[in-house]
Amino acid sequence: MIGKRLLAVAATALIAATPALATPAATDPVASVERQAPKDAPNFLVIVADDLGWSDLGAFGGEIATPNLDALALSGVRFTGFHTAPTCSPTRSMLMSGVDNHEAGLGTMAELLDPTTEGRPGYEGYLNDRVASIAELLRAGGYATLMAGKWHLGLTPDREPAARGFEHSFALLQGLSNHFGEDQNEAWTKAELAPSYRDDGKPAALPKGAYSADYFADRLIGYLDSAAKSGDRRPFFAYLPFTTPHWPLQAPAETISKYKGRYDAGYEALRAERLTRQKALGLVPADAVPHTVELAKPWASLTPAERAVEARKMEVYAAMVDRMDQNVGRVIAALKAEGRLDNTIILFFADNGPEGNDIHAPNARFKAGKSDTPPPSPEQLGIDNSLDNIGKGTSYLGYGPGWAQANSVPSWLVKGYTTEGGIRVSAFAAGRGVKGGGRIANADLDVRDVAPTLLDYAGLRQPSEFAGHPILPFEGHSLRPVLSAEAAGIRGADETLGYELFFRRALRKGDWKVVYLPAPTNRYTRSGVSTGRWQLFNIAADPGETKDLATAEPVRLAELVAAYEQYAKAKGVVPLPTTAEASPAAAARP
């Protein structure tokens, strides 16, 4: 009832902001919410991949079998300059709100709040009330709002999807879980590592043995089928945020077997193959130089046993991407069978760059509670990372920095960084109103542009208030000019976009970008790359961020650094403590 009461208030505001919509005659809250959407309003399908690499899809230079996503991408427009936050929950807050993550409540990940950030405005650790989610706005505007997958924007009943605009939802509330449901037993629960699932706001579970991507697709298809059978012809906003290919690396055996032996040549070889294909596809300049690999051991230095493990991890990762693609195909087939595909706009993107940390067991930073008690040993949780078990529900691994940087090539670094490897992601649009034909758009685009785009195509305007309180106006822009090929971009030459997470900073203005990587400051960044100074890159000429032009362009550097400081002040970014900046001990902080 909380959600319905809030939506009833919001509906009035949205109606007032949208002259094309008539005020409903009914005074019942539910009737006020469930109004008729604008005539000929399109459906929306937003698909988010979790920790996907820039070059994983075939349409972006990858070798993994992704025929369904490739077909969509090649029928629409691929984006080479689509950016997100460096990690998942900050990106999702920007997606839902259309504003900066520091304003929407995820100035840092909830799991990594500390005395420096805890209690600060914009660092609530959940999608806050300074924003209205795009689901809330579309539902108030007459849309059916459906979700199946990862939420990661709040754990309490008043912060989960059912309370933030989704009429129907099956959601994982945390940032990760076992893909076969093997982490829902007593041992994982006692360790505060068990996931929380919600089914329309009620406690639920991932059926043990079901595969996450399969089940999320099942649930979304079920919502669509139910609407078709009941005669509900409202336009829909369907949100499908997969947890694949996020670690732990797990996939059905029959899909893993397709990739046996494919990665035996190693990550340097894969990196070169993918970059060659990207150049042939026109996704990067023909003379693009990839950034050097950081933090990974050369393949030639690994023992045969180490190579076998590494190759197996990438085989499983590929299977996860493959399986996600299969399920996208199932959803598309369902929409086609119901006659709703032609009226649907499809947006696909990853939430950040690929995960490059070495992961062998659950990390205490992902515990559901605030306890600092170390997690139990892998053996106590039933984890078996032996070679033959990798990929099964009882294994628990990430694929590490070598494969991650093969998948982010030519970009610098990976998830968690404000470099291109952390924030530039594979993305495309297809469907109604999208001029396709294999088109590639190179404009500087951002996840903050998604919410304004959906509201624009829905024929609605963002209200200044929602649920009785003011909300922040969108910072992003509608992608319509790019989708329709009416314009090459949506940002003026002087517009800037700022990024910050874990005190790592960046700002983009046109083709230029500044980046600052401080010494590591938390458990996630403890073994990471740092430079300790501002660097300047021309991203159009140097997508790999290989040529630091700070010395050659001091005036431009000063201009962009000043613009970053203005951004940080305006958004309430918590500054890096000076002690952390200067202290070598930060690199060893647990």
Short description:
The protein contains 17 helices and 18 strands. With 590 residues, it is an alpha/beta fold. The strands form four sheets. Strands 7-6-5-4-8-1-9-10-2-11 form a ten-stranded mixed β-sheet, with helices on both faces. Strands 15-16-17-18 form a four-stranded antiparallel β-sheet, covered by helices on one side. Strands 3-12 form a two-stranded parallel ribbon.
Name its key features.
disordered C terminus, ten-stranded mixed β-sheet, alpha/beta, 590 residues, four-stranded antiparallel β-sheet
What does this structure look like?
The protein has 590 residues and is α/β, with parallel strands linked by helices. The chain has 17 helices and 18 strands. The chain has helices at 2-17, 29-33, 67-75, 88-97, 101-104, 134-140, 186-190, 212-230, 253-256, 267-281, 304-337, 400-407, 420-423, 450-457, 480-483, 554-571, 578-582, and strands at 43-49, 77-79, 82-83, 144-150, 168-172, 197-199, 202-204, 236-241, 344-350, 427-431, 439-441, 445-446, 465-466, 469-470, 496-501, 504-509, 512-516, 534-538. The strands form 4 sheets. A 10-stranded mixed sheet has the order 7-6-5-4-8-1-9-10-2-11, sandwiched between helices. A 4-stranded antiparallel sheet has the order 15-16-17-18, covered by helices on one side. Strand 6 and strand 7 (202-204) form a beta hairpin. It starts with a helix and ends in an 8-residue tail after the last helix.
